Structures are given as structure tokens and as C-alpha cells.
Amino acid sequence: MENSFSIRPVTPNDMATLKSLILGLAKHERRPQDVTGTEDEMRHWLFDRKIATALFAELDGQPIGYAIYYPIYGSYSARGRVYIEDIYFKPEVRGKGYGTKLLAHICKKALEEGYIGLEWSALDFNTGSIDYYLKLGAEKEKGRTYFDFSKECMEKLIARVSK
Over the stretch 7-37, which tens digit does the pLDDT of each residue have? Predict the structure, then answer.
């Protein structure tokens, strides 16, 4: 019997499952210590503030992966794009085409909503994913370095400027 693959929106009642999958991604990225958000915080930002869209990829009704994405705006083009924050599948289901189906689903939704493209990042050691994205036709952005500004950095800057 063939497995049934489906994609559905994450609901406010799915936070424990979503957090478990996020922890799986963090372990894969060698950063499990960085998963500090609570289920209540996730629920607040995803559903009260509606800051992002979260989807589950399911096999026979069981979540095997997820994606979180949100809109971004390009001042030069005056158009919107979608940033994929996370796309993750459990190791045992990788290489079976489910990631391609989830990415195509996000592409379809983005185009239906008027967005003109997608952006995402991959850690430089994640060569399997990078090779996969390049095979799909994605292009590495050149001439740009991404930065991270923590809450502590923001507070220090505010304090420095406020003196």
C-alpha cells in the first residue's frame, strides 16, 4: 500500500509537535542549545501576531516535516517575496521527493498571493541541501553577507546612542 502524503497548516494545538520538529532541525544544524522558545511563545508569534505561516508535511496523517515562511519586501522592486525560515524533514524520509513537494506547495501559495520569488539560507556545511537547491535551479546570492543582531546587541546599541 502506498503512503499518503499531504501538507496542512499548523494549528495552535500543534505546538508540541512543531517544537519537536524544530528541535530535530536544530540538532541537524548542530545548534540544539539555541532552541529556547516555548510553545506559548511560538503560538503567540504564529497565531496571535500572525508573523509567519507554518506548514506540516504529513505521511499517513503523521507529521514528518515542516516549513515556516513569511513575507519580505524589496524596496528596489517595490514587490514582495517570501523568506523560508525553515524547511525540515525527519532523516528517515529524506530523498523521497517530499521536500520538493513541500517547496512546490510554498511556491504555488506565494505566486497565488502575488509574491515574485523566494529566499532562504543554508548553513555552509549542509552540502546535501545546497546541492539539492542548486539542482532545483536556485542560485546562490553573491556579494552579500548575512548578519545576526541579538537582543543583547540591540540593547547595547540603544544604550550607546542614548548616552
Answer: 999 999 999 999 999 999 999 999 999 999 9
Whole-number Å distance between alpha carbons of 148 and 163: 24
Residue whose C-alpha is closest to residue 65's, from 103, 36, 13: 103
Say how many C-beta atoms besides its own lie within 10 A of residue 18's C-beta.
21
Q: How many angstroms separate the CA atoms of 105 and 96, rounded?
A: 16
pLDDT, tens digit, 9 for 90 and up, residues 65-119: 999 999 999 999 999 999 999 999 999 999 999 999 999 999 999 999 999 999 9
HSE, side-chain direction, 13 A CA sphere, residue 50:
0
- In angstroms, the first-to-last Cα distance of the chain is 68
C-alpha cell of residue 137: 535551479
DSSP labels for 66-81? Answer: EEEEEEEEETTTTEEE
In the block, residue with C-alpha cell 547595547: 156
Q: Which amino acid is at 72?
A: I
- Could you tell me how far CA 5 lies from the centroid of its own chain? 19
